Amino acid sequence: MFNKFRELKADIGPSASPHTQRFLHSPKMGTFPCLNCNQCSNVVKGNVIYHPHSGKKYYIKDFSTCNKTFAVYLIKCPFGHLYIGETTQAIKDRVSKHKSTIRCKNVLLPIPHHFITAVHQVSQLKFQVIEHVSVPRRGGDRVRILKKREAFWIHELQTLSPHGLIREYDLLAFI
Questions:
Q1: Nearest CA to 52 among 28, 79, 92, 32?
Q2: CA angle 55, 58, 60 (to 5 degrees)
Q3: Sign (positive/negative) of CA torsion 97, 70, 129, 68?
């Protein structure tokens, strides 16, 4: 009987998401490993992104780990070529899929094609979360906002081929 009461009592309070970050003071901004997954060794730590050609600095305004969802991310190869992507799933899961396509030698996709032709190792893939799209306060399509932010970063960092790893990008969805 006592155990049943404990279970009920535990369910009364507000439930917190298992991935909620709690801080005693304001958190650092930037991308950091979660220290609990296989992708942590590939994280580019810090709060700055450097443009590969101009050297311009971009500051990350969110705190992100490998568990972040609804995020725009950057993948960097050892040569400094960039790929910008977006995902609604956890970053660690998306990066794991990128690594899997490299291991399977799926040359139809841009990242594995570059890694195989340039003879890079899967372990050399580095990633960083650039931006997180939170739930809009007044409603709205969060996925559409995420895709717009991805398009912004693709343009801003010039990641379309030949300067980056993105072969093609269709903006018709926004017209």
A1: 79
A2: 145
A3: negative
Round to whole Å and give the CA distance between 14 and 65.
24
Torsion of CA 27, 39, 165, 111, to 10 degrees: -160
pTM here is 0.81
**Peptide linkage before 162 cis (omega within 30 of 0):** yes
CB distance 99 to 38 below 8 Å: no
pLDDT digits (tens, 9 = 90+) for 135-148: 998 888 999 999 99
pLDDT, tens digit, for every residue of 25-84? Answer: 667 899 999 999 999 999 999 999 988 888 899 999 999 999 999 999 999 999 889 999
